[in-house]
Amino acid sequence: MVTVSTSPQTRAYHHGDLRTALVAAGLKALETTPVEDLSLRALAREVGVSPTAVYRHFPDKQALLGALAAEGIEQLGQYQQAAAAAAEGNSDAFGATGRAYVRWALANPALFRLVFGQCRDVGPSIFGDNLAARLLQDKALRAVRGDEAGAQQLMVQAWAVVHGLAMLMLDGQLPQDDALIDRVIDPRTLFAR
Amino acid sequence: MVTVSTSPQTRAYHHGDLRTALVAAGLKALETTPVEDLSLRALAREVGVSPTAVYRHFPDKQALLGALAAEGIEQLGQYQQAAAAAAEGNSDAFGATGRAYVRWALANPALFRLVFGQCRDVGPSIFGDNLAARLLQDKALRAVRGDEAGAQQLMVQAWAVVHGLAMLMLDGQLPQDDALIDRVIDPRTLFAR
DNA sequence: GCTTAATGTTTATGCCGTAAACATAGCAGC
DNA sequence: GCTGCTATGTTTACGGCATAAACATTAAGC
Asked: Which of A30, A87, B8, B101 could covalently link to A96 via disulfide, CB atoms 3.0 to 4.6 Å apart?
């Protein structure tokens, strides 16, 4: 059979960079679709490839989700870093990174859920070498002026507050009210030190 | 056709109380199975009924999950109330209910997730007439000695901490360490008032 | 240029949720 | 006591899913 270009753009048999395309499509889909509604077939369709082509680049669905989660935690870290930089010198720079955490979650609900919910056997814990984790550690250590044990406690407490607030808002248990975020992550009432 | 008892127990065409049996089977399944692996067909199989019999009692899967969630929030409230009663007069009765929240979550991971994660259009927010919500409100109000605005803030902060801690532990981001729960929910360092 | 490995496709299996049509049986009124 | 209605199950069917296996195409190295 002669490979005549009958259509405007002849579809190449090989995609070129399917893996990247799939991750991009996944991230885009998560902007409007909850993670549990994400399907490999839909992604493949979106990218213009057969339903099982995915398996040439990911052993299974979990692996693809893991790649998306890795992108997510990276983006979260960068968003927090920007907020921290903007609040540099501010009396509550620590709080600023916490508020950024919650705001990023609200802006990227599905991806946020994926990052922290799908990590059963996928990615390492946030206490890896990712930006968000390093920010948390740095800020906490600074807040307690070097007290190691105190920093450890503060870190977990702070993480719990912002994570819990984000989750409750995402799950509709609390209104997604920006002012409420400020009222909860309030340095005057939150921690006693 | 004669209805002869050929088998030890003749299976009645009608189950008797299928709805209750399904909920019970669902709760039992959630003890060992994550909520996303729960299937109507498996539940029907468990109860000994055809795959579609479920639809005589629930319009769809979400409705069944909603019924399970309702059971869950009820159980959580009772567990917290027991803990609160045990800590009555204790200087940190408020903290006791918070620690109970986290411990119940760790003991019932799938059900806890269902209660707070599946409520998109299922159940009302926890701020309904359930026990857990009332406990939170009472304890917070007492902690601030009647200050309404302060109680509101404290309530959300406290809920966020315990919910975040529970989630992070369930998702493997923090070790499920009982001592860590005590260190996080620590009245001396958690809130400044 | 031929071989080979990488990358896609086709086909198939066995789950799933759920809709529609049909079967059974308890019960209400005569 | 018979009749018919309604609640409750069953059967059958559909389309979608993840994934496995066999096959096709193409790019890259010798």
From this structure: A87
Measured from the Cβ of residue B191, the count of other Cβ atoms closer than 10 Å reads 19
Tokens representing residue B57 in the block: 């009692």
* A47, closest nucleotide (Cα–C1'): C8
Q: What is the pLDDT, as a whole number, of residue B33?
A: 96
Residues with Cβ within 8 Å of residue A11, at least 6 apart in sequence: A48
What would the two tokens of residue A179 be?
A: 């002012």
Strand D nucleotides within 7 Å of a protein CB? 7-13, 16-22, 25-27
Tell me how far CA of residue B90 lies from CA of B86, B96, B143, B150, in angstroms. Answer: 9, 9, 12, 22
Full pLDDT tens readout for chain A, 193 residues: 333 333 444 567 677 789 999 999 999 999 999 999 999 999 999 999 999 999 999 999 999 999 999 999 999 999 999 999 999 888 899 999 999 999 999 999 999 999 998 655 444 455 677 999 999 999 999 999 999 999 999 999 999 999 999 999 999 999 999 999 999 999 999 998 7
A51 CA to C10 C1' in angstroms comes to: 10
- pLDDT at residue A16 in the model: 78
3-state secondary structure of B155: helix
Task: State whether B171 and A36 contact (CB < 8 Å).
Answer: no
Is the pLDDT at B8 greater than 60, yes or no? no
B15 is near strand C: CB distance < 7 Å:
no
Helix axis angle for A131-143 and A61-86, nearest 10°, is 40
> What DSSP character marks residue B111?
H
Structure-derived torsion over alpha carbons of residues B120, B122, B128, B134, reported in degrees to the nearest 10: -90
Residue B13 (CA) to nucleotide C24 (C1'), in angstroms, measures: 7
Question: ∠ at Cα A10 (A7, A13), nearest 5°?
Answer: 140
Asked whether B166 and B80 are in contact (CB, 8 A), the reply is: no
* DSSP secondary structure, A33-93, as one string: S-GGG--HHHHHHHHT--TTGGGGT-SSHHHHHHHHHHHHHHHHHHHHHHHHHHTTTSTTH
CA atoms within 13 A on the CB side of B193: 18
